[in-house]
Design brief:
heterodimer, A: about 240 residues, mainly alpha, 9 helices, about 70% helix, disordered N terminus, B: about 200 residues, about 80% helix, flat
Chain lengths: ~240, ~200
């Protein structure tokens, strides 16, 4: 009867009332143990922790690791997606060429859009140091390509089932979603980066960007998203990477 | 049941009890499994896969024209295809949407779901045998087990992770994520097996 007293907090999890659950087992669930070690996995950080990516951006010793890791993630994820897409369309024998072309295309597109983005940052008086801009662009593209890779298995199945509608629609949706996520991520990374640099410079850990600064950072983020979308879209068309 | 000593029987009961405990409190057990080595997650998953496969294969022997010699395994294949297609994407999006879950917790939830699916599929086998006995002249009923048993297993497999995800994280994103998980499992399964519905 004590266990059923009204003071006991019920769990979010439904339990069978026919078993003698103790008070501890009825207690609210604890948060799953997120790996607490300082060196968390880059993959998880790319997907869910923009703030720790910004920490890596600001730390000169970890910047190179972030760049190399992001390039690796982009290469592997886009290759996997392109290989799955070409396998789904039934040209099973030549999946290696689309895989190589797609990842090379994304990296080339990022390289080509870097100059205009840097120029835009000078124009709107929000110049980002080049090394940090490269790393931030690569990290956001890596987030997008990880989501793309997560959508590869459904794409394979849907294309196999219905090559007229479901497959092409999901292919388009996958690129739209991944582009949207990468754009949101570059906006977030640039804002967080600007904010933490401002905080460190002012010595005020609660300082926020002024609305003019935030506005110019927003313009820069949109310009960079648009440039990368333009060049990579052009690249997919020109290289015919997806066949 | 005919054991040599009462202690052995008690030990066996404890084993069954500990397995059923995982099904009784999936969220807490998933958290525990995430802390233990990977084998602790694999064991219930393998047991569940075995039970699901065995009962679906047994149900696959039943067809609308009576028993057949080679079991019909389309629906069973569709179950595992759905799992392979949906789980990787769910892992990626659960991390991206910052749910209060880790990869290991989600894998453990899927393993518990497999175990529960195996138990549920085993539990309906007597009913399927009864149906085969009583509906010799009803081809529509006889065509049912081959799709129903794997379908029921998949529904259980979808329901348990949904419960775990929403128990661990009460946010709106978790609600949508868990429903999308269940929806896509069902959608992939239906897309795979709808041809066999047409041929009923």
């Amino acid at each position: 009867m004590q266990a059923m007293s009204p003071t006991v907090t019920l769990t979010a999890e439904p339990l069978t009332p026919f078993m003698p659950w103790s008070v501890e087992e009825r207690a609210p669930l604890s948060e799953p143990a997120v790996p607490a070690e300082p060196e968390r996995q880059l993959l998880v950080e790319l997907l869910r922790e923009p703030s720790s990516i910004v920490e890596r951006l600001l730390d000169a010793t970890r910047l190179q690791g972030l760049v190399v890791g992001s390039v690796g993630v982009i290469a592997v994820s886009t290759s996997a997606f392109a290989a799955t897409a070409s396998a789904a369309r039934g040209h099973g024998e030549d999946w290696a060429l689309p895989a190589a072309l797609a990842s090379m295309n994304v990296l080339l597109a990022l390289a080509a859009s870097l100059g205009p983005i840097y120029a835009a940052s000078i124009l709107v008086a929000a110049r980002v140091p080049l090394a940090r801009l490269v790393a931030a662009l690569l990290a956001s593209a890596a987030t997008g390509s990880l989501l793309l890779a997560g959508l590869a298995p459904p794409l394979y199945l849907l294309w196999r089932l219905d090559a007229e509608w479901a497959g092409p629609l999901l292919l388009t949706a996958a690129f739209l979603l991944s582009g949207w996520a990468a754009g949101a991520r570059i906006h977030r990374l640039l804002s967080l980066l600007a904010e933490s640099v401002t905080r460190a410079a002012l010595g005020n850990p609660t300082a926020v960007l002024s609305s003019e600064d935030a506005y110019r950072v927003g313009i820069l983020a949109r310009v960079s998203w648009m440039m990368v979308a333009f060049t990579s879209g052009l690249g997919f068309w020109a290289f015919n990477a997806l066949g | 049941m005919g054991s040599a000593s009462p202690t052995a029987a008690v030990g066996r009961l404890d084993l069954i009890h500990s397995l059923l405990r995982a099904v009784d409190r999936p969220a807490r057990e998933a958290l525990d499994m995430a802390r233990r080595p990977l084998a602790a997650t694999l064991a219930p998953a393998l047991l569940g896969i075995f039970l699901v496969a065995a009962s679906s294969a047994a149900a696959g022997f039943v067809s609308s024209t009576g028993l057949r010699f080679i079991p019909k395994l389309d629906a069973l294949r569709a179950v595992f295809e759905a799992l392979l297609v949906v789980v990787p994407g769910t892992l990626v999006f659960a991390i991206y949407l910052r749910l209060r879950l880790t990869t290991r917790v989600l894998l453990a939830a899927t393993a518990i779901g497999l175990l529960a699916a195996g138990l549920v599929a085993t539990c309906v086998m007597p009913l399927m045998a009864f149906l085969v006995l009583v509906s010799r002249d009803a081809p529509l009923v006889l065509a049912l087990p081959a799709v129903f048993v794997p379908g029921l297993a998949l529904a259980t497999l979808a329901a348990l992770p949904v419960r775990v995800i929403t128990s661990l994280d009460s946010s709106r994103a978790a609600w949508w994520m868990s429903r999308a998980f269940a929806f896509f499992l069902g959608a992939v399964f239906l897309l795979r097996v709808h041809a066999s519905f047409l041929s009923l």
